[in-house]
TrEMBL record:
GO terms under cellular component: nucleoplasm; transcription preinitiation complex
Annotated stretches, region: Disordered: 94-115
Taxon lineage: Eukaryota, Metazoa, Chordata, Craniata, Vertebrata
Species per Swiss-Prot/TrEMBL record: Nothobranchius furzeri
Molecular-function GO terms, alphabetical: identical protein binding; RNA polymerase II complex binding
Subcellular location: Nucleus
Predominant subcellular localization, coarse grouping: nucleus
Keywords assigned by UniProt, alphabetized: Nucleus
Full protein name: Regulation of nuclear pre-mRNA domain containing 1B
Family recorded in the similarity comment: Belongs to the UPF0400 (RTT103) family.
Domain CID, first and last residues per copy: 1-115
Length: 115
């Protein structure tokens, strides 16, 4: 496995796709580098907030996979993700709500124009 650096993690997060294989592969890499868990979670949280709306849920899938599969190795990720998950989920929910509101307004505007 490649060595850990913040820039390597940023690159891997930017290449993350919603496929199960992509999530599991990155999850394994992250768990392998669990001694950097605090930095990993910090970077994950920052990159989640920067990600496009259609990629945010994938970041949550990744966090879930890391938390579930790292429990056997130690509590690092459970503890570190605990500090950011409420904010991360709220962020994703707010963005989704704003997107749905925008779509609803656009739909209403189009209907009015047709009349």
């Amino acid at each position: 496995m490649s060595s850990f650096s913040e820039s390597a993690l940023e690159k891997k997060l930017s290449e993350l796709s919603s496929s199960q294989q992509s999530v599991q592969t990155l999850s394994l890499w992250i768990i392998h580098h669990r001694k950097h868990s605090a930095l990993i979670v910090k970077v994950w949280h920052r990159e989640l907030k920067k990600a496009k709306s259609n990629r945010k849920l994938t970041f949550l899938y990744l966090a879930n996979d890391v938390i579930q599969n790292s429990k056997k190795k130690g509590p690092e990720f459970t503890k570190d993700f605990e500090t950011v998950l409420v904010d991360a989920c709220s962020h994703v929910a707010r963005r989704e709500e704003a997107r749905e509101t925008k779509l609803s307004k656009n739909s209403t505007t189009r209907r009015r124009r047709r009349r």
